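Before we proceed, please read the two lines closing this message. Tell me what the token row says about the fold.
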Amino acid sequence: MMEAIPSPVGIVPELKKLSAFLRRDALIAWSYRRGAFSDIAGMLVQALLFYFLSSLVDTSRMAQLGGTRSGYMGFVVVGLTVAAFYQIGVTRMMSAVQNERFTGTFETLLVTPTSYATLQLGFVIYDILRIPVRTAIFLVLAVTLFGVDIRWAGLGQVGVLILALLPFVWGVAAGLTGAVVAFRQAGSIVGLANLVLVLGSGTYFPLQLFPSWVAATAALNPLAIALNGARAALLAGTSWSTTLSQAAVIATIAVGAWIVGTLAFQIALERERRTGNLGLY
């Protein structure tokens, strides 16, 4: 069963625990601050590869967004920025749990009076604050170095779409992390499933280039809907009414994914508790 929502009195201690997670991860990141520069360098190299690839793409095959046909470079830059919220959010939770198990602190965390929701959010709270900064830097560099035409007024609409997407990211991350907790060696299979979902959402290539059944499933893929909405907002300046309707669809599916993923995570932990395998890596 899902945990009861903490009372207002119980929320304050949970928030303090979240601040402890945030402080810990911020200190770790600061001790390895060269990683931030390598991350930015990696984004630039990735963008450079797609910049050269864009010269080989026939723009007439690109989908129209709000009556405007965008270039491939703009298409993929927006795809990379939005998909980063999904990819980093999902992989961070899984890697955090694996690191806790490797260092022998995972079972210790679970015996503390901390809710599962606090643990899940604590594993990713640093990245929730870091990713928007990372995304802003990437967009500025893409505009400056590669001439991508971004409509900055659409950033607010993108923010609404990402907020609607977050429960989906949380649910998928929790469900996949539960699979890794229960089966341990499922990391490669989980990674493959995650890659298929990202590719099938149209992150790198327009969905009309895929088989028709892929485009059909994308209609129920919150990440694909968020990508389409973000591209329309940043590349074509679509209206707020369109964005809000897309956000409503995303949120409806995302809440269901959050419930299923959270339940799967809790079931996996309870199973490991009963078998006494929580401390095994």
Notes: The longest strand covers residues 64-65. DSSP finds ten helices and two strands in the chain.
